[in-house]
Amino acid sequence: MATTVWTRRHVLGLADFTPAEFDTVLQTAASFREVLSTRTKKVPALQGQVVANLFFEPSTRTRSSFELAARRLSADTLNFAAGTSSLTKGETILDTAKTYLAMGADMMVIRHREAGVPHAIAAEMNQLGVRVSILNAGDGQHEHPSQGLLDLFTITSLIDFEYPRLGLLAGKKIAIVGDILHSRVARSNIWSLTSSKAEVHLAGPPTLLPKLLAQIGDSSLPNRNIFLHWELEPALKDADFVMTLRLQKERMTSHLLPSLREYHQHFGITRDRLKLCKPDVKILHPGPVNRGVEVSSDLMDDPEFSLISQQVTSGVAVRMALLYLMGSGKN
Amino acid sequence: MATTVWTRRHVLGLADFTPAEFDTVLQTAASFREVLSTRTKKVPALQGQVVANLFFEPSTRTRSSFELAARRLSADTLNFAAGTSSLTKGETILDTAKTYLAMGADMMVIRHREAGVPHAIAAEMNQLGVRVSILNAGDGQHEHPSQGLLDLFTITSLIDFEYPRLGLLAGKKIAIVGDILHSRVARSNIWSLTSSKAEVHLAGPPTLLPKLLAQIGDSSLPNRNIFLHWELEPALKDADFVMTLRLQKERMTSHLLPSLREYHQHFGITRDRLKLCKPDVKILHPGPVNRGVEVSSDLMDDPEFSLISQQVTSGVAVRMALLYLMGSGKN
Amino acid sequence: MATTVWTRRHVLGLADFTPAEFDTVLQTAASFREVLSTRTKKVPALQGQVVANLFFEPSTRTRSSFELAARRLSADTLNFAAGTSSLTKGETILDTAKTYLAMGADMMVIRHREAGVPHAIAAEMNQLGVRVSILNAGDGQHEHPSQGLLDLFTITSLIDFEYPRLGLLAGKKIAIVGDILHSRVARSNIWSLTSSKAEVHLAGPPTLLPKLLAQIGDSSLPNRNIFLHWELEPALKDADFVMTLRLQKERMTSHLLPSLREYHQHFGITRDRLKLCKPDVKILHPGPVNRGVEVSSDLMDDPEFSLISQQVTSGVAVRMALLYLMGSGKN
């Protein structure tokens, strides 16, 4: 397995991750999964360091996951939540970040509804010549790298629990189904999965497929094993993994989609449709799930098919790995 | 004193608590009260464990009390607050609980405005075969067991500080006054107090008395030393303890009660009315108090009569006891 | 340097601080700045103690600063935020404070939009005869002592990093510019700076200058080296430090000021205006800054002139010093 010395200060997206970097994260996360199975569940790796969670877009589950990851590395955490913040007093986002830097933050986990905000903050920090690390926890419809990595960790761990690695996906077929156009999760997953030798098949309503991809049509993209479908069936055919995406209900009202029921009829994953896939197919969803929309409710709770709760568990180990890799050598 | 080996995974209400279980909680809380009087105030009992506070109904004081209790047992805490949550994104409550389970929560402290939510979550967890513990921190108008236990701890500690126990209440008369119909605090207290040999007298406006009890009228309930009054005076007569309940102002507007002033005139506890009680009578209130409504303002601050601040202090020790008893043996 | 044994239980304002007390805070903060430069960044000074942050007026940055300061002293923190609180249930502020006292709070950091609230709480605590300490984190337009102290620490550290002390300001000219009438930061700074041998010059629109001072006119106040100006230039002339104040935009709408642009034209600090000052002049701002209003945007980011980020950094060390001084001897 090709792991590498970690040199990346910020984790803003998976688009430029090297295979060796993917493997380093996977292997580090596997080590932390072992730590989490011990009695104390903590390591002193980041003692004295401060992780600031700057969530300009609210999210309890992702913030909780990062918070727990940080504490299990013995870091201190500071939480900034939009709404109760001085943003309402007219401060810019960059100034908020600089304030937390000056307070002593060693790492900042940033979520914002606009794409590129974590990048802008990272660029500013680089220019200031400071050693703080920025971790993108979701920026608009752009990327959500820790979600992409935890999905990768979840499926590779299923194949080899001890040594999860990119190479395990060679020859696997992975379907990504749903609102790909608006999904930062899909984007991050496309980058990680196409770095392996897996075949990635995207399926969703034409209105919801990325415009970029739509121009190319139903053909493989150059250099990436990626295929595009406007119907569900060809994507599911013999799939090893089906990644469903959260349907943003607010898109419904803007008439991009007719109704939740109609969406479920065309693109919802059901037991019947699963028969198209490999017999041991597994389903993923980044959560929170709209029950009975993206996945039928009984399937979602069926441990034979659903990896949803493993994804959440993987999240803590993967986020520990990211914070650890970015934070080591800081002291 | 009859203490017992603790076998209860969840604490959802006091209705089925055995006398031995009450005594075990009281005695464990007394031990933690001693810990709280030491310099460090902490014990490593729950090191590595995660207590998730899932407050679907907001409450700063109860959440703070649980949070402090958890930290003093060296547990890590995660806070979920409705409003900033993905519930607004359509996730079900059960899915939220399962997410925190998958993240690694060992215990969940749950408050919800609907009765039965903690029970539904506990049932789901049992069915999943996982070892997580659910603690009801108030469900609708149903139960609030930690409040019932801290009230019990407060009054039994007053009689014997070293060995608080149910048996100390034999022959005591305890009045519960106010909006019993809508009070989960009253319900939990009725279960704990009638497990002792105390006499429990309920008094409140007819509109606010439980319909169940109203059918029975002013007579003792079978097997429980409980008495019902539509007027305050017979309940207060020779009482050792007077438990007042918080008046939900929102009930006023729905015309269940005429006015705050009228409520105070009929059911407010004043110095004058206290003369009906035993000379060393004590007053309790679960807080937050509407000053001058349930209790006259000066009486509330009089340490000779008021146990209100002791109740809050008891809360931390009792919640440490509950978390400890449910959490031990998990590692 | 005259440091002193600390005897002050509460820190409510700087109006009655003695020079020796200022120097004790400055010297203690300098020690903690050293701690913050070590690997672990923590000291066990307040182990077992509880710092309750009661922010009745929301503020993420100040709360985060106090929270980090408390944790680095190994204290536990509890956060109360208005809005999600039982205040909406009608509880008085004093009762909220007494609840946190009863829960075990050793110190309370209090912010409220009404002047005098922390003082009222401190008076109540004194009357109860309890050892809890109250720290004013901003009360209306009255005082914000930790901000005044961190400003003092920032400018004295610039003159002598090892031994910051009041005496270093002798002969220095300090301008305070802006909405002095509504500024608790200005008030606290006036008390600290006029305790030194510095000359303090206030400048702001006539409508925004304190009415008290306006009665006296453009002359020095008796016993305090303080001067009043209705125009910026005489205040800036040969100044060593320029303290700008946050302009409360909500004042704009109440017609106390014509427009942000007009304010900037008359009282905004620009490179051009800075030429009036000493060549090595430094600018301060308590944050959050309205970019381009109080200070021109480029100047704010220029490390040659701006002390804004040092102020934030100083904040953690100064708040550690305050919590430490008030909290020592409590165990």
Automatic annotation (TrEMBL), chains A, B, C:
<feature type="binding site">
    <location>
        <position position="246"/>
    </location>
    <ligand>
        <name>L-aspartate</name>
    </ligand>
</feature>
<comment type="pathway">
    <text>Pyrimidine metabolism; UMP biosynthesis via de novo pathway; (S)-dihydroorotate from bicarbonate: step 2/3.</text>
</comment>
<comment type="subunit">
    <text>Heterododecamer (2C3:3R2) of six catalytic PyrB chains organized as two trimers (C3), and six regulatory PyrI chains organized as three dimers (R2).</text>
</comment>
<dbReference type="Pfam" id="PF00185">
    <property type="entry name" value="OTCace"/>
</dbReference>
<feature type="binding site">
    <location>
        <position position="89"/>
    </location>
    <ligand>
        <name>L-aspartate</name>
    </ligand>
</feature>
<comment type="similarity">
    <text>Belongs to the aspartate/ornithine carbamoyltransferase superfamily. ATCase family.</text>
</comment>
<comment type="function">
    <text>Catalyzes the condensation of carbamoyl phosphate and aspartate to form carbamoyl aspartate and inorganic phosphate, the committed step in the de novo pyrimidine nucleotide biosynthesis pathway.</text>
</comment>
<protein>
    <recommendedName>
        <fullName>Aspartate carbamoyltransferase</fullName>
        <ecNumber>2.1.3.2</ecNumber>
    </recommendedName>
</protein>
<feature type="binding site">
    <location>
        <position position="62"/>
    </location>
    <ligand>
        <name>carbamoyl phosphate</name>
    </ligand>
</feature>
<feature type="binding site">
    <location>
        <position position="287"/>
    </location>
    <ligand>
        <name>carbamoyl phosphate</name>
    </ligand>
</feature>
<feature type="binding site">
    <location>
        <position position="144"/>
    </location>
    <ligand>
        <name>carbamoyl phosphate</name>
    </ligand>
</feature>
<dbReference type="GO" id="GO:0044205">
    <property type="term" value="P:'de novo' UMP biosynthetic process"/>
</dbReference>
<dbReference type="GO" id="GO:0006207">
    <property type="term" value="P:'de novo' pyrimidine nucleobase biosynthetic process"/>
</dbReference>
<feature type="binding site">
    <location>
        <position position="184"/>
    </location>
    <ligand>
        <name>L-aspartate</name>
    </ligand>
</feature>
<feature type="binding site">
    <location>
        <position position="111"/>
    </location>
    <ligand>
        <name>carbamoyl phosphate</name>
    </ligand>
</feature>
<dbReference type="GO" id="GO:0006520">
    <property type="term" value="P:amino acid metabolic process"/>
</dbReference>
<dbReference type="InterPro" id="IPR006131">
    <property type="entry name" value="Asp_carbamoyltransf_Asp/Orn-bd"/>
</dbReference>
<dbReference type="InterPro" id="IPR002082">
    <property type="entry name" value="Asp_carbamoyltransf"/>
</dbReference>
<dbReference type="GO" id="GO:0004070">
    <property type="term" value="F:aspartate carbamoyltransferase activity"/>
</dbReference>
<feature type="binding site">
    <location>
        <position position="147"/>
    </location>
    <ligand>
        <name>carbamoyl phosphate</name>
    </ligand>
</feature>
<feature type="domain" description="Aspartate/ornithine carbamoyltransferase carbamoyl-P binding">
    <location>
        <begin position="9"/>
        <end position="156"/>
    </location>
</feature>
<dbReference type="InterPro" id="IPR006130">
    <property type="entry name" value="Asp/Orn_carbamoylTrfase"/>
</dbReference>
<dbReference type="GO" id="GO:0016597">
    <property type="term" value="F:amino acid binding"/>
</dbReference>
<dbReference type="Pfam" id="PF02729">
    <property type="entry name" value="OTCace_N"/>
</dbReference>
<dbReference type="GO" id="GO:0005829">
    <property type="term" value="C:cytosol"/>
</dbReference>
<dbReference type="InterPro" id="IPR036901">
    <property type="entry name" value="Asp/Orn_carbamoylTrfase_sf"/>
</dbReference>
<feature type="binding site">
    <location>
        <position position="61"/>
    </location>
    <ligand>
        <name>carbamoyl phosphate</name>
    </ligand>
</feature>
<keyword id="KW-0665">Pyrimidine biosynthesis</keyword>
<keyword id="KW-0808">Transferase</keyword>
<feature type="domain" description="Aspartate/ornithine carbamoyltransferase Asp/Orn-binding">
    <location>
        <begin position="171"/>
        <end position="326"/>
    </location>
</feature>
<dbReference type="InterPro" id="IPR006132">
    <property type="entry name" value="Asp/Orn_carbamoyltranf_P-bd"/>
</dbReference>
<feature type="binding site">
    <location>
        <position position="288"/>
    </location>
    <ligand>
        <name>carbamoyl phosphate</name>
    </ligand>
</feature>
